[in-house]
Write a structure and sequence with these properties.
alpha/beta, TIM Barrel, two-stranded antiparallel sheet, 14 strands, about 40% helix, about 15% strand
Length: about 450
């Protein structure tokens, strides 16, 4: 009997997200990203398809590595313009009852005290359906935008993140005790002041002496997502994350990463069941293989090679404009997304070139699409779940909304027939739906901050 497969839509509050250039397709509606009705309709569509959630990526810089200029990114709408994803969530939550919301927020540029309040507010307004994708950033342009000369070294950013997590855990879990909120109208006492404590944190990076401003939300700590698969990122994920987002390669390669993260979690006293792994996937499907292939060939005509290079250059920290089409690319030590450089080296060899990179980006990204009938796609998802140990998939948009309409109408019934997809939502919070409990378990390091 296959395991139940979890599914998130993977998107961003912008025009061009992962599959670069497909916003130019005549049936694509992503240019409506500034219209709140676009997003509320999007949420209703996903909930009708029993998606677990929508996972919002975000960046706070511009992709200016290719040619040392942001011009190509602006021209091709490569994740710019981009709006704040957190502001979409209350409206989308009001339009739904069960859909979860994973939102990316870069802790490097966020005040932990104010960020903790914002996430508590979102957890209240969604009825406990909020998750946080913890990122430390990879763009020098973002660092310069907030007054820094450049970003700190890759591994040092994770050291900062560990302290950040200690601080927000104290605010979410340790400031207001259970039972502090009384709501006593008769005596005019809303909360018991004796059960609300100041957080005293004096660390290397942060100093806070304050109580958390929000009363405890349904989950207290949001569901914690993390997308790092470098050696340092995996250690961070094993310590903190509940949902880990990986990009695909071979099944054995993904299984090795999954097993490694879960083994590290066990070493830290956590359970392997404390972590669910979501694999990034791009799906083009139809009723038959021929229909799916026809749609794929149509989509390819709208993909942008220039935009794909803009995105890849920034995520790897390499200016491909400096190299001829067949000139071997020197990777060096990247301070961007280390796992992306490692993945490209694995797939194309150490002497990879711009031509090899472009050959992989058939739909405007390095994520190779799965193309086939609904039956074939369902079997592929089940095989990945069983053989690589992943729990679910983050589905990148191609042409919206039809990419999700196709998945819901065609693939979901195939998965349900095989017992691999839910037929109704479980009750409760996002964490309750995913793990069976509303709050982080005692095996998580957050427990030390509870009274």
């Amino acid at each position: 009997m296959p395991r139940e497969i979890r599914v998130n839509a993977f998107d961003m509050n912008c025009v061009g997200h992962i599959q670069q250039g497909l916003w130019t397709h005549p049936r694509d509606e992503s240019m409506r990203y500034t219209d709140i009705h676009y997003w509320t309709g999007y949420a209703r569509r996903l909930e009708a398809g029993l998606f677990d959630g929508i996972f919002f990526a975000d960046v706070v810089g511009v992709y200016d590595v290719l040619g040392a200029s942001p011009d190509a990114a602006v021209r091709r709408a490569v994740q710019v313009p981009v709006n704040d994803p957190t502001l979409l969530i209350p409206a989308m939550a009001a339009a739904t009852q069960n859909l979860g919301f994973g939102v990316t927020a870069n802790l490097t540029y966020e005040s932990p005290f104010l960020f903790a309040r914002r996430m508590s507010t979102l957890d209240h307004l969604t009825g406990g359906r909020i998750g946080w994708n913890i990122v430390t950033g990879y763009l020098d342009s973002a660092a310069r935008a907030v007054g820094l000369t450049g970003q700190t070294a890759h591994d040092d950013r994770y050291d900062l993140a560990d302290e950040y997590m200690q601080l927000v855990y104290q605010l979410w879990e340790g400031s207001w005790e259970d039972g502090a909120v009384l709501r006593d109208r008769t005596n005019g006492v809303y909360a018991d002041a004796a059960k609300v404590r100041l957080v005293h944190h004096q660390g290397k990076q942060y100093k806070v002496d304050a109580m958390h401003l929000s009363e405890p939300s349904p989950q207290r700590t949001p569901v914690l997502y993390q997308a790092g698969s470098s050696a340092r990122g995996s250690r961070f994920a094993a310590t903190h994350a509940e949902c880990v987002f990986l990009n695909g390669q071979s099944q054995p390669g993904v299984k090795k990463i999954v097993d490694g993260i879960r083994a590290q979690a066990l070493e830290q006293g956590r359970s392997g069941d404390d972590i669910k792994v979501f694999l990034g996937a791009t799906i083009v499907t139809g009723k038959t293989d021929a229909q799916a292939q026809e749609k794929f060939e149509e989509y390819k005509r709208y993909a942008s090679s220039e935009a794909a290079l803009v995105h890849a250059a920034a995520s790897m920290g390499i200016d491909f404009a400096k190299y001829d089409i067949d000139e071997p690319i020197e990777t060096g030590k990247s301070q961007a997304i280390v796992s992306n450089v490692e993945a490209m080296t694995r797939s194309a060899g150490r002497q990879w070139t711009r031509r090899k990179l472009l050959e992989q980006m058939v739909l405007g990204s390095r994520q190779a699409p799965w193309v086939g009938s609904a039956e074939k796609i369902a079997e592929t998802l089940i095989a990945w779940s069983n053989e690589a140990g992943v729990d679910g998939f983050n589905l990148s948009r191609t042409v919206v909304p039809e990419c999700f309409d196709d998945f819901i109408a065609l693939v979901v019934p195939q998965l349900q027939e095989r017992g691999a997809y839910k037929t109704r939502y479980a009750p409760g919070t996002l964490r309750g739906k995913l793990f069976g409990h509303d709050r982080l378990p005692a095996t998580h390091p957050v427990a030390q901050y509870r009274k």
